[in-house]
Write a structure and sequence with these properties.
With 418 residues, the chain is an alpha/beta fold. It has helices spanning 2-5, 16-19, 30-45, 61-65, 74-89, 102-108, 125-147, 149-152, 173-192, 200-212, 225-231, 263-267, 289-302, 324-342, 387-398; strands at residues 9-13, 49-55, 95-100, 155-161, 164-167, 238-241, 245-249, 270-272, 308-312, 347-350, 372-374, 383-385. This is beta-glucosidase.
Amino acid sequence: MMRELGLNFYRFSLSWSRLLPTSFPDKINEAGVQYYNNLIDEMLTYNIQPMITLYHWDLPQKLQEMGGWSNPHIVDWFGDYARTAFQIFGDRVKYWITINEPYQVCNMGYGDVLLAPILNIKGVAEYMCAKNLLLAHARAYHIYDEEFRSKQEGVIFISFSAQWYEPATENDTEAATEHNDFEWGQYTHPVFSVTGDFPPSMKKKIAAKSAAQGFPRSRLPEFTPEEIEYIRGSSDYFGLNHYLTFLVYRNESVYGYYESPSYGDDLETLIYQKNEWKIGGSGYTTYVPWGFYKLLTKIRKDYNNPPIIITENGFATYGGLNDDDRVTYYKGYINAMLDAIDDGSDVRAYTAWSFMDNFEWMNGYTERFGLYEVDFESPERTRTPRKSAFVYKQIVRTRELDWHYEPDTDLMTIDEGH
């Protein structure tokens, strides 16, 4: 399928438990190593670069039972795991992503019930997770930078989930700014800002709320000056996952709306989307390309135009090979990206999410993001290219968007020489 599409690179993740069955490097699963070696070597045979994500939400259960990302020892645990991966695969892998979507890991899994491990310890656990996760990312970055970069000549970065939050009215500009600060700025600001640390608006609001609630200190843990410097600049690229845009407002209805303490109560905003943004059957993804453009512009202006790799962007359906809505989505969002590039945004690569239908967490197999449709009912798990796969292949090959394309075949020709 990679060869059919003519891909230049393919992003996939390692399973921590598959590589280290005890969670630690005292035992390495050679069958797991061989599994990834086979994939990496076959890709390189066809000049398809592997882009590996070390952590895409599959924390070993043993580590979760010891506190997971709320345990500060995870900085060492993750560093040991990362070093093992660099040692085994780094001679061939030149693109490393430390952690995928820290907001989803911490805020949705530790402070809410939207993702595993569904701890739902609001206003406390997600902030503990955020600090430790950023330090763990930085640990992996420095290990690679100091021990492997000169020999392996690769790059390493972190991938953020950043949606765009637009003020609903002129009076909601501050609310939207703070929402962007809280939702993705809490993870990007420590890495890419000149000063490092959590965003000032976030520190101020959570400290004030914590004091009013009777806490002896802010529920947002502080970084030491040394930790701030350790994290700041610890990413060769700005990895960006983007799907959605929301309108943000703040009025009297928000006060008392959320549990206290909680992340939502700390932020004090409400969000919604317009009906006209909805295309296709899925309620998860909407079509707002201008939000993508505004997000890329803000990253350029706020962080001195860092080099960006779009590590996820895509559209969900409920199945079917004729996915015109997905084609519309990709054309619109890639065009918005190109507009940002014309304005000076330093975007180096673009990754569609996803290659084929997969397990979409709490949505199971109902939400289909794939360019290829997977028949989950068949023993063979057959995979068939959707219309969007043909279109995406044409975009990859020609770098052109302004054309109408109707596939006249359900087969694609593999380019053996790619």
